[in-house]
Amino acid sequence: MFRRLRLSPDVPTAAGAPSLPRVRPAALLWAPPGLWFWPALLACVLGGYHAGRPELWRDEIATWSAATRSPGELLDMLHNVDAVSGAYYFTMHYWIALFGDSPVSLRAPSVLAVTGAAALVALSTKKLFGGPAGLSAGLLFAMVPAVSRYAQEARSYALVVLAVTAATWFLLRALEESGRVWPWWCGYAVCVLLAGAFHLVAVAILAGHAGTVAVRLRRRTWKRALPGYCLAATAAAAGLLPIVLAGQRQASRQISWIPTPKPIDLLHSLPSVFGTEDIERVLLAAAVVACLHRATRAASLQVVLLAVLPLLAVWFLSQGSSSYWTERYLLFTVPAWTMLAGAGIAALAGSAVRMRAGKRVPDGKGEPDGSGVRASGGVRLAGTLLRRALCPALLIAVGVIVLPSQSSLRAVTAHDPRDLKGTAELLAADYRPGDAIVPSRGGASYLMLDLGMRYYLPHSDRLRDVFVQTDAVRLNDFFALECPVPVDCLGSDPRVWVVAVGESPDPYADLSPAQAEALKSRYTPVRTSHAGGLTLTLLARGQ
Fold first, then answer.
1. Which pLDDT tens digit goes with each residue over 120-139?
2. Among 332, 390, 401, 436, which is most exposed with the fewest C-beta within 10 angstroms?
3. To the nearest 10°, the Cα dihedral for 124, 125, 128, 129?
């Protein structure tokens, strides 16, 4: 059923440079339908493993709040806030309509996205460096902690990575195709458009792709490559113009919290982009091998530009009035780094095989090996075993390195140290019809405790939000408007639950003085509970 594929580098190397040794997929993992299968499987397993265990954090709660509104309400909200996420919110709106809004369901599109991205990383790397490098790159991508982290995130970042890797694959196909190329350029334009629609910062990938095209112009006539790229990139950019204009109007509110990056941040930010310093060292070391090895040096230049130029573009753009320099916005650059690292690991394994097989046999005995050097049967057998074992061994070593990080990503509070689910469970255990709630707002509004409690409480437990004058949906926002005179909003609720940030013994510490006085005038504390950085206090109405 499965066929063996004999894979070798697809692009010419530098003049006179030896090519990588031919390595069958069986020498790595004996990939079934294609070398993309194992990376996709690993990415799916790592992304889906305990995907529902980490609690939703505020950004994911925002996704749930937006996506569960009606299409009309969502459109009204996007005119006011978060227009740059509109494509993702509408995608999730219809996804939730089909599959529900459990944590696993909310994160499933991201899991599927990194699964597809891992396959495309393998296929794109194969086109540049050959099959062993492609398989290595795809597996490395799947093991990067940041990839698993955002595979379990109900936000658009994983979908952006999928669109960017698909755009890269279409670009390579368009540059190599000798026949009709317009279908590939159309696919490329659509993928860039999708990447930008899911997150505008990802449009910086055009800088990396421009570098790839520039390198290829040395080998191909500009009449085929350059016009196609320029037309496709322009079409994608034009399609994103409405989102760009809307995003500019809302930027001061959306991303004002992101600091302007310094030059040193170009290097210091990489560990957070990859997830850990350990995987950063592994990827950069393997990338250096790919850049220096004679067999991969020529093609490596294209991928170096693909990895570095988008980072530089985002850095320069962040020197203006708005900064976009934060690790999750840069996740789309990770595939290029793993492509380089995969090529480096394959080149390193190939060099080790040559060194082992290149030992000469005295007295001219033995037979010549693949590099023209006479080797004994034992040496040739050892070289074959080494070739079959070294790449998997290196990849397994990387897996051991990232194992602690992969484990910590599945903790309940991996996304947010505040235990909203635990707090909601404490409340639900003693809920009575007619209860009301006062979630902390003010300086803690950005935590969206009100939305988080609403998500984790049972649907049957509906509590009146005491101090809300106008809810978030009617305001076309994520945040509700509170009563200017709190005492006027007090009703006849027999009990009130106060949810505060931290573990202060004072249940009113997070409330405004006016809100605290209003509650004290009619209610007295009954008991206080703590759950992972949150305090839940039950107030009962005085007689």
1. 999 999 999 998 899 999 99
2. 401
3. -160
* Crossing angle for the helix pair 182-198 and 205-216, to the nearest 10 degrees: 160
Q: Give residue 253's pLDDT.
A: 83
SS3 content of the chain, % helix, strand, coil (to 5): 60, 10, 30
pTM over 0.85: yes
106 part of a folded domain: yes
- Give the phi and the psi of residue 95 in degrees, each rounded to 5: -65, -45
145 and 121 in a single domain? The answer is: yes
Instruction: Point out the domain boundary residue: 387, 408, 429.
Output: 408
DSSP of 11-65: S--STTPPPPPPB-GGGTT--SS-TTHHHHHHHHHHHHTTTTSSPP-HHHHHHHH
Rounded CA-CA distance 96/347 in Å is: 45
Q: Which among 490, 538, 493, 479 has a CA at the least distance from the CA of 518?
A: 490
Picking from 117, 94, 114, 95, the residue whose alpha carbon sits closest to that of residue 106 is 95
Please check whether residues 202 and 273 belong to one and the same domain.
Answer: yes
Q: From the CB of residue 110, how many other CB atoms can be counted at a distance below 10 Å?
A: 24
| pLDDT tens readout for residues 249-296 | 888 888 888 999 999 999 899 999 999 999 999 999 999 999 999 889
Asked whether residue 192 falls in the same domain as residue 107, the answer is: yes
- Are 448 and 401 in the same domain? no
